[in-house]
Amino acid sequence: MCGTSLWGLAGAVVSAYFAYLSYAHLSTGDYSWVHSWWTVLTYAVWVVLITGLLTETLCWRERIFFGLVMLIFLLGFLFSAWSSAPEHAVRQLRMASTVLWALAAIASFTTTFGSKTGDAQRDSPEGVK
């Protein structure tokens, strides 16, 4: 993603859309959460995939983006599995989800700037020589 405008912008647009959807749920007072086993399984698969992507990141901006997305999916997994969650906790998660998706959009947008190799060298144990 780092240094590649297409993927950074695509991640920013998708994250902004999800932030908007989460905000739309809040503004209409819809705090419901789906508790089907398919939803739990889907979140679990996404958590595993995002964890794998975290090991393949090339720069710190990618790590921040994928870390935020993994946190969002992990929270989604937990609340999908927790069918007896109190309404105030679900409302708080909806608020947190809105903020986290907005932060992920910003983080993804920042990956469009800078070079891919410069960050990878700086982040390596040897550092830039």
Give me a quick take on this structure.
With 129 residues, the protein is mostly helical.
What's the arrangement of secondary structure elements?
Layout: H1 5-27, H2 37-54, H3 60-81, H4 87-110, H5 116-123
Model description:
The protein is mainly alpha-helical. The protein has one domain (5-120). It has helices at residues 5-27, 37-54, 60-81, 87-110, 116-123. The chain is globular, with a radius of gyration of 16 Å. The model has no long low-confidence stretch (mean pLDDT 81).
**Largest sheet entry:** none
Oligomer description:
single chain
Structural class by helix and strand composition: mainly alpha
Number of domains: 1
Distance between the termini: 24 Å
Helix content: over 70%
Q: How confident overall, as mean pLDDT? A: 81
Q: Beta-sheet strand percentage? A: under 5%
Shape call: globular
Number of helices: 5
Could you tell me the radius of gyration in angstroms? 16 Å
Low-pLDDT windows of residues: none
Order of helices and strands: HHHHH
Beta-strand segment tally: 0
